[in-house]
Amino acid sequence: MRRNRILLFVPILGALSLPCAVESQVDSLRLGIGGLAWQEVGEEFIGLDDAAVAGSLQPFELNPQVNVALGLQTESGQFTNVFGHVWEISGAPPPYVQDITPWVYGSRGRAQTIDGDIDRPTDVAEVSHYSFDMGLPLPLNRVVFFPPDKGRTTTSGGNAGFNRVGSAGLLLKDQYPRQYVVSGSLNEREFLFTGTSNDFDIVVGRNSNQGERIADVRFRTEFLRFLRLRFPALGYIAEVEFYGEGFLPQTRFVSQLFDMGEPVNLGRLFFDFEIYRSEGFGSEPILAPDAPVEIAVEVRSGRDDSPLTYHIVTEIGTEEEVTEKQYNRAPSGTYRGGGKVAAPGGVKQLLIPGQQGSIRDDLTNWSFWSAPHLASGEYIQAPDGRQFVQVRAFIKSQEVYAFGRLNSLSLEFSPLLANPVVGEVALLEEPLPESGVVEVPLGERITLTYDLRADFTSSEQAGFDAVRLRTPEAVDFQHFEMGDPLIAVEPDSLVVDQNELVVYFPSRPVTRADNKPLRLTFETRVFNFNTVFDGEVFQIGGGNLAQSIDGGDASPLVSTNDLQVFAPLERLEILSELELSSGVVTPNSDGTNDVLMLPYTLQGVSSALVEVNIYDLTGRLVRQVVEEMRGVGRYIDVWDGRADGVVVVPGLYFVRVQVDTDLGTFTKTHPVAVAF
């Protein structure tokens, strides 16, 4: 159900806080058991049930005796499904599908297919097809349709040209379709674009000689969202009913906006999530951590109280941004359901100056939704320094009788260390690029500067004495500079890890009283088209959370105003720098060339299947060294001159590295000799 957006003002939540040390200023926002009730803070509950277990959220379970297409009528007489979602009705497919919005299109009388009136025919003439969007994937196993038990055919009321069964005065209950095909799909394109004379991709029932008034089509329970009833032999029906058993496989919870009272730093995300299996409706579920069920939680943060921007149509047909209040006062908009966010491919009508236009995501003041958090305790991947926070959770299952139960969810937060902390990356030899963009070659050594600047807006902001950067590989650190002008200083300590650089300077902390610009200089390589050098500042042993670094104007000495570097696409080489440590392997344990080192670099791929194989001269596979999914980076694999634990016979062999990507398959092959 969609609810009106409400801002929740969240002071330090006392009883909702995680246990922490006395000096710590870390608190937590907790939802569910031990915190704010789901119904109090929810903006969207899609396919979720908060009544099955007090304080918890879990997917709805279908009652096999209940028709999921039929719910209570609204006060205005609209038809709803069992979840209370209003049916949309049309003669043709809609322009797009929308979660929780059930839809039926097809022959005349489509509204009567789901009205619950079993004594009323859907139309005064025979019907040929209806297509249904249930609004969500459901575990379905039964479709029932039948003619009315009362009434007779008539010669009036139909459209000219309609084919009729028999003649006037025939009992409707005897004029049911003698042929039918029931088909289903999870693919929205099937629902939107499959011609009505064709079936969806999964045929669940077919009969070319239906001999009973009630067609009760039963099939193995499976997840379906879109269904079509097609009648090759026309007939009369009164109702279409849908039944299922099990738990909804895709559900979503979206919170309302939380006003934290002031900009804050975000820490870790915790959730209490249990996985269960059921033996059937009404049975007691049992814990089943091995079941194919997962939860994914996303977070976004913003500077103001709306993650959306509102627009009205101007006199020249363009759009201008207005306040939400101005938007609501304008005449109905140009998109279906006026006032809703335009879907991709949304259909525009006439553009009238002053009317409602589009509603868009506010990408200036709000972050994108974070990457999914799949495990409790992960650090929140949303920007710090924002006053407003929103969270959403997805529960997904691949089994009909398996489901997840979300008992609670909490987000750590603490006061800012500074407001803000901005960073700026640039090439050492090109601090003021003409384009304002840092452009670098893929896989080649480059020297970067990383400037940092902090501002302080409150005496409560404690400052910081350490910087952590995330890097594409272990960097070659060169300089640490502080002050205005910048002066090279020795950090108190330094940590260079595979994908991390940490610089500690507690003897020279950055505080409100002693606020100094910083610069880090290091050598590294990048392996992707777009690399962001994310980072954070923190207090060593402090009671506050680390604070992420925002891209911005950190120094007048550079002009990039960003933390990103880019690589030209034309320089892309997916697999590069395959360099064998030696052309000869001598696996005799003498300490010289006992193993073959196989270094290479992957560029421009987030995930690709990598195989490293050894072949003999006939092309026979001798040894598979590696077969796994890998992303960008530098890799070093090792072959010890053995196959199946035994040293291979002396001779010439070939090393082949193969990378399978969406762009194609890339290979490099080198000969190597095995000798004693």
CATH homologous superfamily annotation of the largest domain: Galactose-binding domain-like
CATH class of the largest domain reads Mainly Beta
Profile the largest sheet. Answer: 10 strands, mixed
Strand content: 35-45%
- Helix coverage percent: under 10%
Radius of gyration: 32 Å
Descriptive notes:
This protein has 676 residues and is mainly beta. The chain folds into 5 domains: 7-61 and 250-305 and 366-415, Jelly Rolls (Sandwich); 64-244, Galactose-binding domain-like (Jelly Rolls, Sandwich), CATH 2.60.120; 308-361, no CATH class; 421-570, Immunoglobulin-like; 575-674, Sandwich (Immunoglobulin-like). Helices cover 2% and strands 43% of the residues. The protein has 3 helices and 47 strands. Strands 1, 2, 3, 15, 16, 17, 18, 22, 23 and 24 form a 10-stranded mixed sheet that branches. The longest helix is centred in the first third of the chain and has 6 residues, at 188-193. It is globular and about 100 Å long.
